[in-house]
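Thread title: Can someone regenerate the structure for this chain?

I was given the following input by a collaborator and told the matching structure tokens would be attached. They weren't. Posting the sequence so someone can regenerate them.
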Amino acid sequence: MIDAYIKFFDIKKCGFYSRGAADPVFGDINQSLTQLTNWARDGRDFVNTTTYESDPENDLLSTYFCDWQGNPVTQDSVLILWNETPNNNGTVYGMPPRSRPGDTAMLTTEFEGDAIPGMPSYFWFIPEHNLMASIRFQHSIAGKANAERYLNSYLWNKSPYRILNAESEVIGFSESGNFEEGCEKLHPKFVAMVRKNHQLIDYLLENRSRITRMIKRETLSYQSRDDRNIIERVFSDLLNNAPVFTEDRTINHTMQFRPTEQQLEQIVNNYDNLGPNSPIKDVGFILNTNEQIMLSGVSLSVEEELQVDRLENEIISADLLLNALSRSRGRLLNGARARD
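Best answer:
Regenerated them for you:
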């Protein structure tokens, strides 16, 4: 048994679309994953399974294909990706957990020979319900943003529907893979949005008039002038000199606030669209009954013990994970749909 944190996403788009169209002209999730797997397993080395150019200077590192397995009965499948992490000539750095702010000593792990440092990410696709779920374990990361970039880049750069010109540039897409009239107007798209707990959102909207305060939890960096001003204001009149922090700090702001319906809806929607690098970590509201509702609870997620064994220093194989998810499928999907 192994503990898993499962977060659900609605697949809004997957395929090849005309501009502005809601439905694809062709393509679907299972077809895309099958074609991706065939491409990744065509004899190429692992290092050549990335689908986009990395840009380390802008913190964009590579993502690689590890494994995929589908269930021909339910059409469910599991995709496993490898997410590269920063390193310095084969050395990965870490900080001692009991060090003090201001300490400069780092821990290092060095690789012998060639290696791509990183962590796996696991994804469960359920086409029957247009759902995707990230499966996070202690040894893995959620990696949703990387998966979305990876799949979109595959559809754009590697799919068999590409039409290339003489310079090997993509000039369009067609189901036959041959130039057809209007093929230059099609574009691929994969979009997955956090599946929301609509009961919680409805409850918040129904009780809007009872909201008295808003909570905002964000991460501040002393290296940023604006953030440094906030930190110094926190300590003003308490210390003669505000402390200097070498690491980021998380701060909770609580302020009196009675939102209009439009403001509340806008806050909920904007929070949902925050990227993984946003300094805002959570937003919430306090009602006049002192009940506190945080928007992090709006995303639909569950914790589950999955019947799968994992050896140390090994990735869980896609077929073993898919079998474990299949055994719990009914209960997990009931939980995903219970709060629609």
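Residues 99 and 222 are 19 Å apart (CA to CA).
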